[in-house]
Amino acid sequence: MWSFFARDPVKDFAYEILPDTHESSGLWTLHRGKRKTNGEPVSLFVYEVALGTDQQTQLAKAAFKRMKTLRHPNILAYVDGLETEKCLYLVTEQVTPLAVHLKAQAEKGGSGELEVSWGLHQIVKALSFLVNDCHLLHNNLGMWAVFVDRAGEWKLGALDHVASETGDPSGATLPPPKAVYPDMEKYDPPETPGSSGTEKWAGEVWRLGCLIWEVFNGPLPRAASLRTIGKVPKLLVPHYCELVGANPRARPNPARFLQNCRAAGGFLSNSFVESNLFLEEIQIKEQAEKQQFFQDLSENLDSFPEDFCKHKVLPQLLTAFEFGNAGAVVLTPLFKVGKFLSTEEYQQKIIPVIVKMFSSTDRAMRIRLLQQMEQFIQYLNEAAVNSQIFPHVVHGFTDTNPAIREQTVKSMLLLAPKLNEANLNQELMRHFARLQARDEQGPIRCNTTVCLGKIAPYLNPATRQRVLISAFSRATKDPFPASRSAGVLGFAATNSYYSLAESAARILPMLCTLTVDPEKNVREQAFKTIKSFLTKLETVSEDPTMLVELEKDVTSSAHPAGVSSSWAGWAVTGVSSLTSKLIRTAPGAEGGAAAPENIVPVLTACFPSTASAAAAPRAPLSHPSALSHAPQTSANEGASDGEQEPMADRWDEEEDWGSLEVRRDLFYVVYVNFLSGLSKAELSKKRREERKKELEAKRAERKAAKGPLKLGARKLD
């Protein structure tokens, strides 16, 4: 029973010390530790009474007391403590000694002036708080007294020698640093302590000057070295010289020093310091000021330290969205900061906010999310996409704002790999069919076709067979030229998903109509795509065993390793760069033309009943323009009395491509214009000659039918 009252209080302490994490910090030994209940990281300062002198124990107990009573954002934060006969335990926020931090930063390339400027600002502000508000003197300012937290912010610690400027009323005095550590004498000011007429802060700002010198130049070898500026920045030199001036009366008050450095063009006047000061007061700022700050913050984040972005900016951004109604303006800086997070941190901190943002009715936020989806899509799991995000995103397909409809279509390229069977092959295809048939914006109809071609590998085989040919065929009839080009390129990009029978009977006849399209770009793409399909047909015609190999992807449901997520080539960027990604992925799109001697097996594969006709010379069509030109007719035209019939929101209706004679004529145009190898001038000349011969033959036929002319009759020809 007596052992219950005599048990060690250290075992009941709420914190534990991590092994092999100690380093000296003045009188104390600094350890890394954690809270036993939740694993929260902390720092533990431990002082062992048995290893110290009476003076050192007195200083340690004084520091323990000061840490409990002094509270300031720039002073090391006290969390908990334990005092026993053997040890003193002081628990603070997790920090690293400044010397260790600067050494680690030097290995990465060195601390930037922005980070140092804000660190000095914090230390001077803490010193001003002690001197001007608390009427205390630190008496121990130096590199060893400064610590850095996870956000990179500097904290003033080492309160062992803090004393009142008027002395202790009880008469007890603490020993000066040099009495405990003789090598600390070089940091003492040249004047005698307590000299008449000397300002109370004279010694404090002198040590501040020593700290500045060591931050930029390393350990101070001797007091005389302060005269050498070294690497102290030019903007800081005049103010530094005031701190270490020989005349103590000329040394500025810490508050005055801070004001001088914050003046326009001063060392502490920069975007990083301004951003930090705004974040400290963000709760009392007006909404318009917050909006402007977050807009400007996006441009500055690239130059800010990574730790600062993760541990200070990010919490403020999340708070601003959650409680401050910041809206879409926080998205850009939020995603920039997200690049610094690990996958686990991103899932914990940012993904819940993104999911909540998608449910917002704010159009500005919705379009920002869609535009920047590429930055966070890899962190979204399939369950969240299908149940929490996609149901909200699909509302964008029917939005009255064209920009939102356009961005919604583009976002499907990123969402498609994560959609389930129902959302991808049913819900999404229904919206795509409606957009392609009914949307009044040509670029949106075009981009719908482009996106369909890019996500085709993720569709199941049955959906591909039902949708692709009908969708791309509809696109080739669109009055918007870029949509027709997108339809052609869609066939080129997905040609491995069609059987050879479909290629010959449905796709090639439709593509042939585009060889006389008014737009040159459409015609060129049509010829290239036809060449791709004809090459496959010719290959199988020469070697029928290749049929299985060429049709292996028709019923395949294997998803590709990755699909290009670049937005280059969407119709909204211009017709000239339309769907550049699609044509690059089209197998055989850049292949050479089939040789004229190989046209017979190609035509035989397409139309078995026309083999003999293809082998023999044939009279040409009167003119290519005699062919009906489908793309000139709007997708919704055709109703009588100016009425428009609503297009079906389906793609599984069979396309009518006319009789076999029309198909023969179309293929003959391809044969004449594409496979003959003649130049445009030669083709034109040849057509004129053939037209002339045809007219002469008709005249001769009419003369023969009328018989010989009678005397006196009017000559008709």
Automatic annotation (TrEMBL):
Compositional bias segments (type: Acidic residues): 640-654
Superkingdom as given in the UniProt entry: Eukaryota
Example of a GO MF term: protein kinase activity
Classification via PROSITE patterns: HEAT_REPEAT, PROTEIN_KINASE_DOM
Stretches the record annotates as Disordered: 617-654, 683-717
Annotated ranges, domain Protein kinase: 1-314
One Pfam family recorded for the sequence: Pkinase
Gene3D superfamilies hit by this protein: Leucine-rich Repeat Variant (1.25.10.10), Phosphorylase Kinase, domain 1 (3.30.200.20), Transferase(Phosphotransferase) domain 1 (1.10.510.10)
Ranges of compositional bias, category Low complexity: 617-626
Protein name (database record): N-terminal kinase-like protein
Source organism of the structure: Gadus morhua
Lineage: Eukaryota, Metazoa, Chordata, Craniata, Vertebrata
